[in-house]
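Contributing new records

If you add data, match the layout below exactly. Sequence lines come first and carry their own label; structure lines follow with theirs. Keep one chain per record. Anything else will be rejected by the validation script.
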Amino acid sequence: MATLKACIVKKDMRRDKTWRVQIRLTHCRKVRMIPTSMYVTRADLTSAYEIKNEDILEQCREIISGYKEKILSLDLDLIDLDVDEVKNALFKKDKVDDVEFFAFARRWIEKEARPKARGNYKKAVNKFELFVKKKHGRKTISCNEISCLLMLQFEKSLRDEGLLSKWYCCAIKKLFTEARLHYNDNSEGRIVITRSLDLFIPKQDLRMARKCVLEVGQIRGIQNAGDVTVNQPRRRDLARDVFLISFLTMGTTAIDLYECELDAGGNITYERSKVRERRSDRARIVIRPHSVLKPLMEKYANPDYPRDRHAFRFYQQYSRAYTFRATVEKGLKELGKTLGISGLNLYGARHSMATIALNEVLIDKLTVHEMLNHKMPRFHVTDIYIRKDFDKINRANFKLLDYVFQTHSLPENAGSDKVFFDGLLAQGKERALGFRYRVKPADMNPDRTWNVTVEVSLGSEIREIRTSIKVSRKDINADYNIKSHTVLDRCNALLDNCRKKTARLDIASGSVTMQQVVKCLMSGKA
């Protein structure tokens, strides 16, 4: 009988000191290794180099369970197959003539969807299932029954219910596309799912969230709200302070406040959690603290700084970002009742910041767009050629906060030649050293994979270094941005190593050349 076990090959350590997790297939005393897309570090292994990371082991158990089902169907006691034939049988897709959409969608959500997105996908599938049951009288539907006309009818039903139709329709279209990619990519070249939703484009929802927008006087009222009495829960005070911190930091969300850090210049910096995995710039932003913000930063300061670079101690008080957000929202409801502000929530700080900046302070819409850390698709190519400079949005933010809180402040770097670049205050704007990773579509390998490229920039000079990190089509999205959490962790670890290696170079002096930087990166010393 064939046996399967998750393991690593000790001698196959990669240059970044990681090992690829493999499934060892043993049959008739012969062994074959089946590589996976997972990697482990030394900390994930025992002294005997056995895998001990429970998350990795759980994923391996799921893979092995699927393999075992296929092996049982082969009936190896009756059929004489060698180990290579067994291995090939594991990767052979089952021949299907039709695909039930909801069954595939739920399997895909559990195995492939990002953990944070699973709940949203499930809501969309449940809503579509109710629509199908109402229309056809059943809870099942074939992928070949899903047409653009059906999706238009589904979209109309959502709008009739007063729901945001685009979000639901995009989720269903995504799941349908994944089903086509999975079943139509077979060795026989058969087209199992003949339908296509390429011509269906969900309509944009233009609903304005007016109830979340506060007046300047209401924001000042929140600032002046006193502490609660001894007998009342303290979360109201926390909610008041977090609302103000969010407004003072250009509408930063609760999850980003939970994760944000301080850079070497004392600026708040983070990568926006909602979109960082979908954007090539990781949605990074740098915020210089205003004089009104500094007392709040001191009140909630991280006691472990600088050993731990978190800007606030929220991550120590709450085990999960979602628990922190839920506590703040409950506190804001209590605060709203006290101040007579109906529907007060944390997102109101973001809406109010943008509305007041545009309508009262007269900051141009493009700058407000950047303050919200949004990305404009029409400038996607242009952004590649422009070095990120956060000075403009910080000046605009100071102008807004001076207006709202009646202060007179200027950024500390006003009038100087310093610029914000990748979260660091670079002392010579022409000599800033930066790193970023990317996948170049044109550099596809013969095995239909890509090697991740690290782009090193020193001033206006750019050098590309090909790495040993490989990605397949399932690890990247349509824009060739990496979406695999495992690959992202490896890439970020690689960039951290690059920064450590180049930390000893005196970039500010202007005497360091690109050749010296590359030589330093290629050296084995960290």
